[in-house]
Amino acid sequence: MQTETIVPTLMRGPFTRTLRDALGGVTDDATIADLLFLERWEIQPMPGAAAALRVVQIRRANPSLAAALRAEIAAVK
Asked: What confidence score (pLDDT) does residue 1 get?
């Protein structure tokens, strides 16, 4: 699947089943924003040190989720 077709879908919420499942019980807006950011990054990395640092921190806090996201996205690409 092309990235161009994935990105508009992301504006409406999580693209992956992995993230939809993970967000099921999350009510904290900051956590939701971080996880959506991570998913978008895994689909199409953004330039800049700040974005890269944020992703590293989110991955470190959620290693199994990050691995599952990468695996699911890789299977789609």
From this structure: 43
